[in-house]
Amino acid sequence: MGLYPARPARTDRWARWVDEDARAWVKPLLAGARFEKIAESIKPRWSSTVNGRYLSNGCQHCDALQGDFPVEEEVSDLVREDGVDALDTLLVVEVPTPVWQRVVHGERGSGSALLM
Predict the structure, then answer these.
(1) What secondary structure, in 3-state letters, does 18-66 show?
(2) Per-residue pLDDT tens for 57-79?
(3) pLDDT at 74
(4) Cβ pair 113, 107 in contact under 8 A
(5) Distance (Å, rounded) from C-alpha 88 to C-alpha 57?
(6) Count of C-beta atoms within a 10 Å radius of residue 38
(7) Are 44 and 56 in contact (CB under 8 A)?
(8) Positive or negative CA dihedral for 8, 12, 14, 15?
(9) pTM across the whole model
(10) Are 101 and 5 in contact (CB under 8 A)?
(11) DSSP state string for 67-98
């Protein structure tokens, strides 16, 4: 799952890979837009890598955790080769600037990683 502004600033040249907080924000938006199956696939799962549970993406068929690193790597390759148009757009929503900044940059400015 990634986020990309319709009118990107110079610092928004790439889609943003989203973290657990952003997944929590996006999940009800997906459900409200009739993407219930995708929204349901976002839930807490155990990860041996992080040795704990976190809100994660999962396979819609077998419910297996789709780890952040492998997914981010695959999406990064697509974006690097063909730009954000290589990704499917599931949802377009109006987001107030402060909300976008909080989702992308986090409460303390650390935020989500760029897809590069």
Answers:
(1) CCHHHHHHHHHHHHHCCCHHHHHCCEEEEECCCCEEEEEEECCCCCCEE
(2) 898 889 999 888 888 888 888 87
(3) 83
(4) no
(5) 16
(6) 18
(7) yes
(8) negative
(9) 0.70
(10) no
(11) -HHHHHHHHHHHHHHH-GGGS---------HH
